[in-house]
Amino acid sequence: MTRRVTIADIATAAGVSKGAVSYALNGRPGVSEATRAKILAIAEEMGFVPNRAARSLSVSTAQAVGLALRRSARTLGIEPYFMELISGIEATLSAGSYGLTLQIVDTVEEEMEVYRRWWAERRVDGVLLCDVGIEDRRLDFVADLGLPAVAVGGPVAGARFPAVWHDDAEPCREILEYLHALGHRRIARVAGFAHLLHTAQRDAAYAETAAELGLDGMTTVHSDYTGEQGARITRRLLSSAKRPTAIIFDNDVTAVAGLGVAHELGIAVPDGLSIVAWDDSPLCRLTHPALTSLTRDITAYGSQCAEALLAHIGPPPASGEAPAFSVQFRPAQLSPRGSTGPARG
Amino acid sequence: MTRRVTIADIATAAGVSKGAVSYALNGRPGVSEATRAKILAIAEEMGFVPNRAARSLSVSTAQAVGLALRRSARTLGIEPYFMELISGIEATLSAGSYGLTLQIVDTVEEEMEVYRRWWAERRVDGVLLCDVGIEDRRLDFVADLGLPAVAVGGPVAGARFPAVWHDDAEPCREILEYLHALGHRRIARVAGFAHLLHTAQRDAAYAETAAELGLDGMTTVHSDYTGEQGARITRRLLSSAKRPTAIIFDNDVTAVAGLGVAHELGIAVPDGLSIVAWDDSPLCRLTHPALTSLTRDITAYGSQCAEALLAHIGPPPASGEAPAFSVQFRPAQLSPRGSTGPARG
DNA sequence: CGACGGCGCTTAACCGGATAAGTGCTCCGA
DNA sequence: TCGGAGCACTTATCCGGTTAAGCGCCGTCG
């Protein structure tokens, strides 16, 4: 295990000072082109890679972004959403040679503590906040800390930092009109966590469209996004006297579980029941029939979030143009598949 | 955004030198108990958190572990395996106040480049190698680099660093005997990537047990673990003249896809076809019928891997007892559910 | 009584970069 | 011919910790 090569080694080899090497490597003025070329060649030949800690200490930047996820291992595992998001985030970050530091936490308190520590340690330059809630203590906490952040989801009222989100109202309208056009009148919805911002947004959007279409029998049940709850709620819905002819699920996992329950109860899909899932993932194409779902490119969404964060971290506040607050991402698109059809009778 | 508190600030406040503060905070001798208590109290009061970069620079340790995943965003998203693994890894790491740095890569070359960079930058103190292959160039590469590593999977022949794995032979035998006892004689297997070590191990184990049981018609088809391939292969298997009465899938995703195909072809499960899935995840309980599967605690497995890595990084090689090479994890257990039953006719 | 050892603390160097300030040189114009 | 600007590079300092070495003071023992 040979010793690492430092700029001092390069300086010695090139017969110049450490300072000159630093200027040369960072493309700053202060050295002649000939010397710069020579230094770069030597650095390349010696396989020089700057020590991250030393650079961080000097410029007081971590070149890393933090992501704290407050979901259980099981939920994280089965929700394609997070891994796709992470994958997108990661792609943008590594293109900008930023690292991604990941931590899984149990409670909001723990999550905030992680942010406090990360920032105090200068382990990260900024964080991405997932699962934005209606009343979200993290928002003020992080802003007060001075820790650059971007909310994954929004728009956040009175935001003190950027958010990246997509309009859910439009897709909600699209689904409901689609199901209505297919003749469905008793439509149920298995929603996500009631405290999440986007759940509330969808709640409102469905209510509005339902009113316009004269669908007054729409029931909404909130879940924790797990398959177990999805199955249990679906079982209850399908066992009721006036059972729905269509169910909208707020995520893919509960939708797949719901489909399983329909099979279990001998209800044919889509003849006896239509199913729509949010968050089109490969999961939706695994089942038979494949699930009609709302497609959005979560990986691209993750990239966009990371970009917003880098932009927010990046330029010193002197810059003329204000950072783009609250970027809006393209809304989800309905992808009709085999799980939806005309209402029976 | 107030300036960070450094040990110099504490030193001033306590009326001592930086050195004394450092000794006090690190629990080393060199200060009286009274002074230590005073310094600790002041540090606490001022909310001191050491700067990671400064400490790293001094002690040349990153207090972080790297994980590079060579899978596509879509695969990562839908495979519960990785998130559960990460979750377990993360739990152990954060308990030891290590960070986890994640990177997603496309090719082996890129992956090795990431290791080289991480190590040169001293961004990580060690890495976990997933998806260990039969001929794995990464193993020697990482060992030559001097980068501490632990293989997630094994045993690795001629290993130059520890591995954590579980015996797959025993569960393979268990499955085959179970299906044999149920009367199945035409059993197919949808395996994973042929180049992966554990696939080869299972290949061998099945072949051996099949020979013992006199099952000579066992066909094995290798897949890339995706639902698409799982579905396609299953469709082919079920369309053949002498179609199997049972299929073993090497992961949960292909198994769920296979179940979908059975539905599609109107083949009842388990009456017309029995299905067994490896890697019991919530996914296996989402379907109807729920999938008989091989349960292993992947989160705990991840923890174990992280522990092995920390142990390998941790004590300087002087230590008396050799680091535990090649920890064996408990084998997977068969969890029979609704997708398996007696062979028909 | 003086030498010695150890405690408790300070001093200073170091980790590996970035960077402001300083130095010697050349070239230019007055 | 000389002052001054500007280039190319060096020197020195800083970032915030860790740590070896040094130093004064006290108690102890020969």
UniProtKB/TrEMBL annotation, chains A, B:
Keywords in alphabetical order: DNA-binding, Transcription, Transcription regulation
InterPro entries: HTH_LacI, LacI/GalR-like_sensor, Lambda_DNA-bd_dom_sf, Peripla_BP_I
One Pfam family hit: Peripla_BP_3
Domain HTH lacI-type as annotated: residue spans: 5-59
UniProt KW Lyase keyword: no
Lineage top rank: taxon: Bacteria
CDD domains: HTH_LacI, PBP1_LacI_sugar_binding-like
Membrane-crossing segments per the record: none
Molecular function via GO: DNA binding
Name listed for the protein in its UniProt record: LacI family DNA-binding transcriptional regulator
Provenance organism: Glycomyces endophyticus
